[in-house]
Design a protein that fits this description.
Number of strands: 0
Protein name: TerB family tellurite resistance protein
Strand content: under 5%
Distance between the termini: 40 Å
Helix content: 55-70%
Organism: Zobellia barbeyronii
Order of helices and strands: HHHHHHH
């Protein structure tokens, strides 16, 4: 049984699934560095992950793959969710950018597609969009 199956809150389950996938990405090289640990701690706090959930996710025998959605819209929704989490403190750092790219690729975007989605998402979430994009977003 997946750890997310233990919780009934849809939002918390989604947050826990995001955290588990992020933790798996961080540990893909076998060890979690101090920088990755610090980043995981920040994500755990942002996602309201309990200490028990955190420990369960980080067990060596637990690996939670990213479950890539079949549609582009659902992939974008997952990226959007992660951006909301990352930008909850109104800041994005280099480690988070690297993680975002790994996550987007894990969701099924190509490297180039991931770069474009991330670049546009950063512009939108940081409020740095040009007028033409602003008009397009409001009309569609």
């Amino acid at each position: 049984m997946a750890i997310a199956d233990l919780y009934s809150s849809g939002e918390h389950r989604r947050n826990l699934a995001h955290f588990a996938a992020i933790a798996t990405l961080a540990s893909v090289d076998g060890e979690i560095s101090s920088e990755e640990k610090s980043m995981l701690d920040r994500f755990a706090a942002k996602l309201d992950i309990t200490e028990t959930e955190y420990k369960e996710v980080l067990k060596k025998d637990n690996k939670y793959p990213i479950d890539p959605p079949h549609t582009s819209e659902n992939r974008l929704e997952r990226v959007y969710d992660l951006f909301r989490i990352i930008f909850s403190d109104h800041h994005i750092d280099n480690e988070e950018m690297v993680l975002l790219k790994k996550y987007a690729i894990g969701l099924g975007f190509s490297g180039d597609q991931a770069d474009k989605v991330i670049e546009k998402s950063v512009a939108i979430f940081s409020g740095r969009i040009d007028f033409d994009d602003y008009v397009y977003l409001l009309k569609h």
